[in-house]
Specification:
The chain is α+β, with helices and mostly antiparallel strands. The protein is 36% helix and 24% strand. It has two domains: 36 residues; 159 residues, no CATH class. Strands 1-2-6-5-4-3 form a six-stranded mixed sheet, covered by helices on one side. It is globular, with a radius of gyration of 26 Å.
Length: 203
Amino acid sequence: MRSVKNCNNQKWAFNFVCRLLFCGFILASLAMLAPRPSFSADLLIESGEYKDKDFVKGVISDYSGMTKGGAIEWLWVDPSVKLAAYKIKIGSFENVSEIKKKSMTEEVRKIFEDTFGEVGSGEKGTLTARCAIYEAERANLNKAWIPFVGLHKAQAGIGVEMEFLNDKGKVVAKFRHSAREGANVEEAAEEVAGDIRKYVEKH
């Protein structure tokens, strides 16, 4: 009798496991067939960053089309434009961050002017860049204790937007990029400007 009961228990357990596997297969199949969201996380306007209530806009009026750009957080470039064929002139430089310090804005502007001063061949002319600091944060050692990211968060940070305009005033490129580096905002600005310069030189 005991062997018969054991056999029945084994059959019941086997059938139960088979049913679970079958149900799991059905649910997985339905999940694959379900319609997926139409947005792409690679688009700025569909990202959590853009939808956040604390998103700060700089000089860019239209963020549509801006995508992740590898070393650059967000960008858009007119497909018909080769940026490396132009000289880059820094035009207006705004500061809409919470740190409204004139000396900081002037120093960051100078960093961008120096960084882009020798960029491009100039064979296609000159593009004028209008820029804005949309975020600035001084180094804060109190953040060093944040698990996993503390040492990064404790550094100074800056976020800058740039729009490149041709001689007709048409926007041909847009950049939104930020970085954290060192003890002061200027060090972070050097990294942001350097990252964008490297992209321009290669494109």
